[in-house]
Amino acid sequence: MKIEEELQVRQFKSEWHKATVNLVFTANKLTEILEKRAEKQQITLQQFNALRILRGQYPQPANNNLLKTRLLTNTPDISRLMDRLVAKNLVSRCKSAEDKRSVDLVITDKGLVVLEELEETMLLNDILPKNFKEKDCERLSDLLDKLRNSLRLEE
Hints:
Elements: H1 3-7, H2 15-39, H3 45-57, H4 64-70, H5 78-87, E1 91-95, E2 103-107, H6 109-122, H7 128-131, H8 134-154
Antiparallel strand pairs: 1-2
């Protein structure tokens, strides 16, 4: 279904307007799908992303600052996000040996299992290959990179 039909809009002011609305609308739909999938393991999409970052660091510890720079969404309270993962025994936390003001975060074995169980569905391998060729995905990623890089100039 075209975006005009989906949103019941007769026409957009321009192709740029249409693309903007389409990009935001589609991103929100994908986010909804991913949130529902993460919910099956009683975690949020942000928690899933944090676990992926911690697994990438594993067995080395990470800290809040590292997570803040790598999370896909802006998360003002990393500490609270980590509190929830620690409470679920998906992450362990201890004082840093190098910097007493910092806290080391490490994904637990349980966190690794949860991440492994979710990973395949979270990569949208059941959606993207049905709708795009690999070359299409490469082109889409290139276009999104171009857009995102130009946005950095606007900041």
